């Protein structure tokens, strides 16, 4: 229920992905009036699958004239039939896409920063004769040659960059009060609030390597309650001190700036929630997350279809998140 003393603000939410949607819901629940702007034809963000995308995504590297694209353009393996493809990056997208490509491509060459790979990827490579692991690319040459840092080379038809995603806010002019520097969006108190502008401007969904949806929900609730005056932020100076302290701790741990928002810490999510009395992550949720990661490491090809944490899943299904749903929502 909305307290009669709380302020109602007009709030614009940019983006209708999971972060924007939960922000809109929590803002509405808190009594604010909300407009959501979405540039695509429907809501869902990354979860809105669009089968048809522009197939051309030239990455502006002049010397190498053949096909190059980023993984966000990739949909199905068929266009790469009989090609020699270099996949750059062996993280989630690079691994998934390589496993699809090996079925149709002539050769798939996976270029990784480190040749120290997981057991799961190692098993996949030894199973497929047309899948090869290489170190990083050193140069690309005009004749289609891709040269790796160990001196080995090959002629490829396509290079597929599975190198992750970067933050960018081309529509937002904060006169430098929030800037993106090597994937650090800052300064942001608790990855959410620019001290000079919050809570008039706040960010939802910046952290990575977290269990996203409950975290976004906590962010949304905090923002909604700040705007209604139910809560207040620390002073600008305190927020800046906290941010600088955070940056120092990351430097001390030798974590590059590029990974500022990679959290990878359940306790941080709980501490974040404590600012607004948001429930801590349930034990089953943490365990399911960890067991899926371990299963993916060991059993890369099959981890989505076979798992051994059935009892955790049963526990999850008993939780209100699922018991509130109708039977038709629960198809696994
Ligand atoms: C390849 C990939 C796989 C992933 N897999 C998983 C997974 O399995 N599980 C998981 O939990 N997370 C996964 N994630 C993380 C994913 O980012 C989050 O689950 C979630 O989608 C983040 O929500 P978001 O709303 O912050 O961002 P997004 O989902 O990216 O949504 C942002 C929305 O904002 C819109 N937008 C952007 N700029 C503007 C503008 N100027 N005006 C209007 N609208 C705008 C976009 O069109 C989009 O709809 C994956 C991410 C990627 C890239």
UniProtKB/TrEMBL annotation:
Keyword NADP: yes
GO molecular function per UniProt: flavin adenine dinucleotide binding; N,N-dimethylaniline monooxygenase activity; NADP binding
Gene3D superfamilies named in the record: FAD/NAD(P)-binding domain (3.50.50.60)
InterPro entries: FAD/NAD-bd_sf (IPR036188), Flavin_mOase-like (IPR020946), FMO-like (IPR050346)
One protein family per Pfam: FMO-like
EC number: 1.-.-.-
Broad class of enzyme this protein falls into: oxidoreductase
Cofactor dependence: FAD
Keyword Flavoprotein: yes
Key words of the record: FAD, Flavoprotein, Monooxygenase, NADP, Oxidoreductase
Summary of the function given for this chain in its UniProt record: Catalyzes the conversion of methylthioalkyl glucosinolates of any chain length into methylsulfinylalkyl glucosinolates.
Family to which the UniProt record says this protein belongs: Belongs to the FMO family.
UniProt-recorded name of the protein: Flavin-containing monooxygenase
